[in-house]
Design a protein that fits this description.
Strand content: 5-15%
Order of helices and strands: EHHHHEEEHHH
Radius of gyration: 18 Å
Helix content: 40-55%
Strand order of the largest sheet: 1-4
Number of domains: 1
Distance between the termini: 41 Å
Oligomer: single chain
């Protein structure tokens, strides 16, 4: 499996960038650009069921903070030039001594959870449109594991290494029947046992 380009992960640490992302539409726009690749504001608006002007405003806000950028590869004029994610992935790592950063990270995490739930709902309502092969390939597993912190970190890194070659922005020449697939894997201490 060939990779399209090397991975460029962006570590978001400062409160200003976290604040820029802590908006539902901005987070959805960034997620969409990561999944779909370069898109214009109009294309984003159509995909996210919003207005072009609203998407354009929020795309400019994301760009102002270095989270997205204009795609210069297609030679279109400046106004119609698509936007693309500035990195192939993000890591949110607020400064542990920054109370505002921690609060923004918590708000961003809550938005991310909301988006994961909405995505699952959209899938549930649209799965009947898929072929049987795609419906049978979808999987929803929940495991309760017994791990210490070191084992949890090792497991997360191992799974991450398995998934990385399939990341949409990095994959070169995927099979013709490939489509965007959302994979969510949450691993955390079970609250009932904390």
């Amino acid at each position: 499996m060939e990779l399209n380009e090397p991975e460029r992960r962006l570590r978001v640490r400062d409160a200003t960038k976290l604040r820029a992302l802590a908006h539902p539409l901005r987070l959805r726009l960034l997620r969409y650009l990561l999944a779909a690749g370069p898109r214009t504001a109009a294309q984003c608006a159509e995909a996210l069921n919003d207005t072009g002007s609203n998407c354009s405003y929020h795309l400019h806000q994301l760009a102002r903070h270095g989270l997205i950028e204009r795609d210069h590869s297609d030679g279109t004029n400046r106004r119609d030039r698509p936007w693309r994610a500035a990195a192939t992935g993000l890591e949110f790592l607020p400064d542990p001594d920054d109370a505002e950063g921690r609060q923004l990270n918590e708000a961003l995490t809550a938005l991310e959870f909301d988006e994961v739930f909405r995505s699952l709902q959209r899938y549930q309502h649209q799965q009947h449109k898929l072929t049987d092969e795609w419906q049978e390939s979808a999987t929803f597993h929940s495991y309760t594991l017994s791990l210490n912190p070191e084992e949890l970190r090792h497991l997360a890194l191992t799974l991450d290494a398995v998934v990385r070659p399939y990341l949409r922005p990095l994959r070169n020449a995927p099979p013709s029947d490939a489509r965007a697939v959302t994979l969510n894997l949450q691993a955390y201490p079970t609250p009932e046992f904390i």
